[in-house]
């Protein structure tokens, strides 16, 4: 019996198979070689066929969505994405909390780690970095250092166009995969 995850992956793979590779490449900023898609992922080139399972379904959804190719340069919070309220506890647990736990005491480490993935320093919080995590999706990671009165805090913002590429559930996965790459 297949899991819901396997069914979702199979459905997305069937949807991708119905789109000509050259259309996918043009729409999504990826390449196609030797019957495989290669996705720029956080500064690295990743083959769809060899991507870890969590990445694979995310990539399949990205490749079949044909969202907005021009970044808006308007940042939105996760709450601004349709359907996000249902998934927000997971977003906080799987992305925000690990980000704060790792970088809250030393925000400058976020900049150093983010630059390893092609990130550009931003002026938000005590430390922030903007990373183009997929060809047409950029994410801003922000940390505010704690003090004697307040614990450290963090946030993750998306370019407004991210919601044209991925639904709320996938943005939780995207953010958590990015955070775990940053803290690894």
Overview of this structure, please?
By secondary structure, the protein is of the alpha+beta class. The chain folds into two domains: 4-65, no CATH class; 75-183, TATA-Binding Protein (2-Layer Sandwich). The chain has seven helices and eight strands, in the order ααβββαβααββββαα. It has helices spanning 4-17, 21-28, 53-65, 84-103, 108-116, 162-165, 168-183, and strands spanning 31-33, 36-41, 44-47, 75-76, 120-121, 127-134, 137-144, 153-159. Helix 1 packs parallel to helix 3 and helix 3 (53-65) packs across helix 7.
Give a short summary of the structure.
This protein is of the alpha+beta class.
Helicity, in percent?
40-55%
Number of domains: 2
Question: Given the C-alpha coordinates, what overall shape results?
Answer: globular
Widest beta sheet: strand line-up: 4-8-7-6-5
| Strand fraction | 15-25%
* Termini gap: 34 Å
Number of contiguous helices: 7
**Overall mean confidence score, pLDDT:** 95
What labels describe this entry?
184 residues, alpha+beta, 7 helices
Topology of this structure?
Elements: H1 4-17, H2 21-28, E1 31-33, E2 36-41, E3 44-47, H3 53-65, E4 75-76, H4 84-103, H5 108-116, E5 120-121, E6 127-134, E7 137-144, E8 153-159, H6 162-165, H7 168-183
Helix pairs in contact: 1-3, 3-7, 4-7
